[in-house]
Amino acid sequence: MYKIILKPSIDFFGALILLVVISPILVITSVLIYIKMGKPIFFRQQRPGLNEKIFSIYKFRTMTNDSDKYGNLLPDNQRLKGLGAKIRSLSIDELPQLFNVLKGEMSFVGPRPLLVEYLSLYNEEQKKRHYVKPGISGWAQVNGRNTISWKQKFEYDIWYVNNQSFFLDIKILWMTLLKVVKRSDISSSASITMEKFEGSKNE
User: Fold this and answer.
1) β-strands 54-60, 42-48: how paired?
2) Cβ distance 178 to 149 under 8 Å?
3) Tens digit of each residue's pLDDT (9 = 90 or more) over 3-24
4) CA nearest 117: which of 201, 48, 42, 53?
């Protein structure tokens, strides 16, 4: 009952209410990005969702288009600075995903939607993460986010798929709020973004 009826309803109406409440933040952030970094304001990327159906995820853009003398983009840690770094540290870049939730492509809670290129690298157990809608936050996010290994991340994701419930979702949302306030587990120790997944053989 919860997974089929209640959770989709909570996602839709919750996203709708939040978008109205935080609309000033969305507008101000959009204006600042336009002034400081120019277009585009939003970052869009194809990601696999429920049953591996591909959709476009929305985020606020946080990296500049700075490039070297040959026209190649600089490394992420050199392009994430100033306003973009502040937006990322406050997790404001994730707020546009509320539109994905409103469209039914994502949920507030679920495994994070990863890159399409990873689909062919999953083993049968890891593929189970697509048995549910991807989430803005999830069990792996509140247990380490980008600071844990891919093996641990997938174990948390599959555990959530097998144990999801209303009270577990509430717990995850509460833990997410605490982590956002503390600004913890934003990056891995080696990079500002999670290192690429290269398959189970490299876990």
Assistant:
1) antiparallel
2) no
3) 888 999 999 999 999 999 999 9
4) 48
